[in-house]
Amino acid sequence: MTRHFTTIEQVSDQDLASIYQLATGPFDDSTLRGQGVALVFERPSLRTRASSSTAVSELGGFATFFSDDEIGLDTRESAEDVGRTLAQMYAICAARIRHHEVFARIASATQDQMSLINLLSDVAHPTQAVADVLTLAEHFAGGNVKELAGLKVAYVGDATNVTRSLAVALLRLGVDVTVGAPEGYQLTPGGLEDPGVVTAGGTLRVSDSAVEAVTGVDAVYTDAWVSMGFEEESAARRIDLANFRVTSELMVHARPSAVLLHCLPAHRGDEITSEVLDSPASLVWRQVFHRRSAMRGVLRWIKEEK
C-alpha cells in the first residue's frame, strides 16, 4: 500500500514511533538509490528545500525542484494533471502548497501511484512537527521521544498550521500543551489536523494571556505573526499580537531551565526579540538540523524500512 505523510493526525502511533526511530537511527545510501523525489514548491523556502534535498541525497536518491512558476498548480495546468505527469517519473512527491486539498486530488488522480509528503500546507506542517519532537527529545530525554511524557510546552502567538501539527504530535506523546493567543488567532476546532480530537496522552489548554500560557512550562514556542499570504494584514497583526511577543520578560515566567523554539524564519522584533532568539536557551538551530533528520525518517518510513 502506498504511504502518504500529509498530517500528523493521519499517522498511527506505531508509524509515528517508526518515523522518529528511523529519523535518527543508522542509515545507508541504499533506500532511494537510483530513485528521484519531486520537490514541488508553491511557496518559497530555505530550510524545507535544503533539508528535503539533503535527506534525499543521503539516502542515495536525487531530488528535482519545481517552482510555482514552472508548474502553476491550477493555473498553468490542473493539480490532477501535474500529479499524473510526476507519477510517471517519480515514486515520491514532496510538496509545499497553498491548499491542502490538492494532496487528495493528486492521490485520487494518480490512484495512489505516488507517495505524497506535506512540506507545508494551509492545514498542517507535519515534517516540522517531527523535527520539533526530535529536538525536544534530544534536549530533555536523551533522544527518547517516549520519555517526553509530562513535559509542558507553550505555544505563543498566532495559532497556525505549525501549531496544529505540533500540538497533535506532542499531545500523543503525553506532553501538556498550552496555546496562548488573542481572540481571532486561537486554535479553532475541526479540520484535518485537529489537536482537539486527541483523546489520550497530554492535556490541551488555551489561554488569552501569554504570561499565563508560559508560566511554569519547560519550552516556549513561537512562529511568525505574518505568514506567507497574510502580508496585507501586517499592521493589524502587529497590534493584535503585541502582547504575545516572546521577550526576556516573558521567558522569566517559564521554568528557569526552559528552552525556546521557533520554526523560522524569525521576524526579529515582531514575534520574538533577538535577545531571546540568540540566547543560550534557544534550540532553533537544532530544530533546523532535525528538519533533515525528520525528512530522512519520513522517507525511510514511506519506503517501509523497519
In brief, what are we looking at here?
The protein is of the alpha/beta class.
Secondary-structure map:
Layout: H1 13-24, E1 36-41, H2 47-58, E2 62-67, H3 68-71, H4 79-87, E3 92-96, H5 101-109, E4 115-120, H6 126-141, E5 152-156, H7 161-172, E6 176-180, E7 204-207, H8 210-214, E8 219-222, H9 234-240, H10 248-251, E9 259-262, H11 274-277, H12 284-302
Parallel strand pairs: 1-2, 1-3, 3-4, 5-6, 5-8, 6-7, 8-9
Explain what this protein looks like in three dimensions:
- Strand 1, helix 2 and strand 2 form a beta-alpha-beta unit.
- The chain folds into two domains: 124 residues, 3-Layer(aba) Sandwich (Rossmann fold); 162 residues, 3-Layer(aba) Sandwich (Rossmann fold), CATH 3.40.50.
- It has a five-stranded parallel beta sheet.
- The chain is globular.
- Helix 1 packs across helix 12, helix 4 packs across helix 5 and helix 6 packs across helix 12.
- The chain is built from twelve helices and nine strands.
- It is of the alpha/beta class.
Descriptive key words:
four-stranded parallel beta sheet; Rossmann fold; alpha/beta; 15% strand; 306 residues; globular; 2 domains; 12 helices
How are strands sequenced across the largest beta sheet? 7-6-5-8-9
Please write the string of helix (H) and strand (E) elements: HEHEHHEHEHEHEEHEHHEHH
Q: CATH homologous superfamily of the largest domain - what is it?
A: Aspartate/ornithine carbamoyltransferase
Number of helical elements: 12
CA-to-CA gap between the ends? 15 Å
Derived from helix and strand composition plus strand pairing, the structural class reads alpha/beta
CATH architecture of the largest domain: 3-Layer(aba) Sandwich
Principal-axes geometry comes out as: globular
> What about the largest sheet?
5 strands, parallel
Total number of distinct structural domains: 2
